[in-house]
Amino acid sequence: MGEYTGRIQIARPPAEVFAFLADLRNMPRYLPTVSHVGPQGHHDDHDDVAIEGKAEDRTYRDEGWLKAEPEGRRMRWGSHSLKDYGGTLQVTEASGGAAVEMRLQLTPKPEVAERMQREHGNVDHGMRLAVERTLAAIKACCEGTAVSAAEKDTTRSADDLPDSRPFGSSATLNPDI
Description:
- By secondary structure, this protein is an alpha+beta fold.
- It contains 6 helices and 7 strands.
- A 7-stranded antiparallel sheet has the order 1-7-6-5-4-3-2.
- Residues 149-177 are annotated as: Disordered.
């Protein structure tokens, strides 16, 4: 299993950034493969969630868990079906606003690893780029520089949008990773 990390500063208060990230309804705004996220039940230590989306012309639905810890501005997540997948996100104070640090643990499926090898030279580099793109998309949403869905269709090509597909699909429990 690989571990991939990234960090970005956001010019918004930490509590506001965490509140945005902890709200499941916002996930499709910064993870383009996600179309819907919904609660599936509550347990003592986490909430179960279902995630639906589309990656590489395939729709997916998976279930996992999410634990938001507002007192520490931290989130943890994982998949019920992918035992070697999980992550954490921590929002801290930084000069001029907040810092978001993300850690992702996963082993990409062989076909995804092959694609990353082909496209990025190696899996680790592809995953690092994906983490950076996802963090950039979070920053854009929080700072108000994100493009709406209507604008995406008319003002940007797919190449211009943050491509968090390698990370985003795994972060959304996509069984393809």
